[in-house]
Amino acid sequence: MRFQRNILITGGAGFIGSHLVRLFVNKYPEYQIINLDKLTYAGNLSNLKDVENKPNYNFVKVDICDFETIQKVFADYQINSVIHLAAESHVDRSIKDPFAFAKTNVMGTLNLLETARQAWQNTENQNLFYHVSTDEVYGSLEFDNTLFTEETKYDPHSPYSASKASSDHFVRAYHDTYGLPIVISNCSNNYGSFQFPEKLIPLFINNILKNKPLPVYGKGENVRDWLFVEDHTRAIDLIFHKGKIGDTYNIGGFNEWKNIDLIKVMIKTVDKLLGRQEGESEKLITYVTDRAGHDLRYAIDSSKLKNELGWEPSLQFEEGIEKTVRWYLENQEWLDNITSGDYRKYYQEMYG
Ligand code: NAD
Ligand code: TYD
Q1: Which entry of 255, 278, 286, 289 is 20 to 30 Å from 27 by CA?
Q2: Does ligand 1 lie within 6 Å of residue 192's CB atom?
Q3: pTM exceeds 0.85 for this model
Q4: Do the domain assignments include residue 346?
Q5: Which residues are marked as active site?
Q6: Shortest CA distance to 121 belongs to which of 67, 180, 77, 76?
Q7: Residue 278 belongs to some domain of the structure
Q8: Euclidean distance between the first and final Cα of the chain, in Å?
Q9: Are 233 and 185 in contact (CB under 8 A)?
Q10: How many domains is the chain built from?
Q11: Arithmetic mean of pLDDT, 88-117
C-alpha cells in the first residue's frame, strides 16, 4: 500500500511520544508511522500494545546518535516528515549526567536534521521537520504576572534545558541556512497516563499508593504550568498540519500550580479514590534539599496558538488530574512493572 505520508516519530515509546503515535496511527490510516526509539530506561513498548499490530505502524529500535542507521531508516521508509521527540528528559538526571543530555538532545537532533537535509534536498514533496521542545528553554520567571511568549529570550539553567535550547537553535539554523522546512513547539509540563514514575505526578501517585515518603524539593513553592498530555498531542497534530513553516508555537494550559498545592490536590484525589480518610496521606510529605538551580516559575502564553490555529486545552485541571490518578490506580501493574524493571522484558526478546 502507498501511504500519503511516511512520518518518522522519534521517541515514540516514551510518555508524550506514545500518546502521539497512538493519535496518528488511529486518526490517519493514510499515513505510515515509523516509531524510532532507542528504548532507553524511559522507553516502554508496552505503552503501545493497542496499536502495535496496525498496518500503518512500524517500530525500529535505533539510537538517534547513530547517523548511518538514521540515514538507512530514511531511505528504507522514504521518510518525508519527522516529528522529533526523542530526548533525555529528566532535569534531575541531567544534573548527574550532563554529557548524556548533550549527546542525545544536541548531537542526536543534529544527526536527524542533517539526514533530513540530505534526503530532502532534491525533492518536491511536502516535507516537514517538527521539533518538540519545552518551555524550560526560556528560563525562570519571578512570582509575578509575566508569561513566556515566543519572543522571550532563551535563558536555560539546567543541563536539560541547555541541551534543549541548543537543539532548538540548530533546528532554526537548518531552516535559516539550508531552507529546511521546520516548525518548533515549546510546551509546558505535561501530565497523564504512561508517564515514567520519576516525574513529579506519577512518582507521587505511586508513593501515596505505597505509603512511601513524598520528597518535596525546597519549600514546595516552585510553580509549574500543567497541561494534559492529550491536549499537547492535539496541539502537535494541529501545528503539524496547519503551522507556518519556520515558526514557533508555545503550548500551555494557563494552569499554574505551586508544587505543594498540586501535591495536596493529588493526595486528596488518591485518598478519596482509595477510600482513605481525606488528607490522611499528607503525613507522607517530606521536605528535602532543593534541586540545584531549581527554576522558580514556568508559565506559558499560548495565545498565538489559540488566535492563529484555534487550539485550546480541552480539560479542566481538576478533571484531568482525577482522570490521571484513576488511570494509575487501575494500572498498578504498569507502575509495578517499571519499579521492578520487568517492563524491559516486554521487548527484550524481540529487540535485545
Ligand atoms: P520520555 O523521557 O518519557 O521519553 C523519551 C523517549 O525518547 C523514550 O522512549 C526514550 O527511549 C527515547 N530516547 C531517548 N534517547 C534516545 C536516543 N538516543 N535515540 C532514540 N530514542 C531515544 O520523554 P517525554 O516526557 O515523553 O518527552 C518527549 C519530548 O517532549 C522531549 O523532547 C521533551 O523535551 C519534550 N517535552 C516534554 C515535556 C514533559 O512535560 N514531559 C514538556 C515539554 C516538552
Ligand atoms: P518534574 O516533574 O521533574 O518536572 P520539571 O522539573 O521538568 O518541571 O518536577 C516538577 C516540579 O516538582 C519541579 O519544581 C521539581 C518538583 N519535584 C519535587 O519537589 N520532588 C520530586 O521528587 C520531583 C521529581 C520533582
Answers
A1: 255
A2: no
A3: yes
A4: no
A5: 135-136, 160
A6: 180
A7: no
A8: 29
A9: no
A10: 1
A11: 98
